[in-house]
Amino acid sequence: MYSTMENDPLDNLPPETRQRVENALKALGGGTVQDVFANRYQSNASQETGQPAEGAPMIVGSWTYQEANPLANTPGLQQTAGSNQAWAHWDYTPEEWELFDRLDWEPFKNRYRLTAIIGSIICIVAISALVVFAWHQFSSLFNEHAIVVVFTPGVLLLTAFLVVMLLAASSAKEAKKRHLARANPAEPHRVTLSEQGVWESGICFKVDSLLLELASVKITSNPTVLTFHLIKSSMGTNGNSVTFQKFKVLVPRKYEAEAEPIRQRYYNEVIKRPAYNPKEPT
Question: Is residue 282 one of the residues assigned to a domain?
Fold first, then answer.
């Protein structure tokens, strides 16, 4: 059975999920999405029989697009007619690129190392204290009461330490991806910003997707830096979990006037995107 305009498969999705799917499809099409279906390709059905041609894959539906009106001009920014185009391109000097890498990568690297060192010291000291206490209290570590005193708090402490390390490792992993992208000598020292994300040396780091939400964009000075705060969701067998991420983008000196307009565009066009409103049935 084939999808028709009266039976839109996206109607079965929750409103927020559908909105994100439509935004992603809109980015692919470069305009406003109309009559969205579950497959991009045109139907291979025969005009005479209405059935798929022999050997052709089954097609669920098609997409149609309507070109969007060009955006109003903003001084200093690259304006586009579609959401899949760049808002701005920033080129860096070698010195600015090195500073950019230090600002974004080193805090995550140092935090992970510091967490590992301090956490290990706390675990060793705490477990040693429990062993000494149990030894003096029960004169033997093989006493059942001594085992409970040492084993239970020790397991809880190690579990907490592992959780903290996993969170720190997750943040450091994302930061290392950006660090490696910037370290690629074959790519230019360039950052591109758009509705979909931030490209560093040609590698895209998304700020908005089905499981990723842009929470805020802040700007600081001396040097001028944009800080992106993200909320990442993950689905598992035990339910959904949420983690918070952030990354920094140094604004080159000759583009500092663009920083605030870019920040406002992320608020207006990504963070404060209008709520999904389904089309009124006829």
Answer: no
pLDDT on residue 262: 96
Higher pLDDT, 236 or 106: 106
Q: Which domain holds residue 235?
A: 71-92+189-277
Q: What is the count of structural domains for the chain?
A: 3
Question: If DSSP states are collapsed to H, E and C, what string results for the chain?
Answer: CCCCCCCCHHHHCCHHHHHHHHHHHHHHHCEEEECCCCCCCCCCECCCCCCECCCCCCCCCCCEEEECCCCCCCCCCCCCCCCCCCCEEEECCHHHHHHHHHHHHHHHHHHHHHHHHHHHHHHHHHHHHHHHHHHHHHCCCCCHHHHHHHHHHHHHHHHHHHHHHHHHHHHHHHHHHHHHHHCCCCCCCEEEECCCEEEECCEEEECCCCCEEEEEEEEECCCCEEEEEEEEEEEECCEEEEEEEEEEEECCHHHHHHHHHHHHHHHHHHHCCCCCCCCCCC
Instruction: Report, as an integer, the average pLDDT of 80-100.
Output: 84
Predicted confidence band of residue 12 (pLDDT cuts 50, 70, 90): low
Same structural domain, 83 and 194: yes
Q: Are 163 and 234 within one domain? A: no
Whether 177 and 196 map to the same domain: the answer is no
**What's the pLDDT score for residue 95?**
97
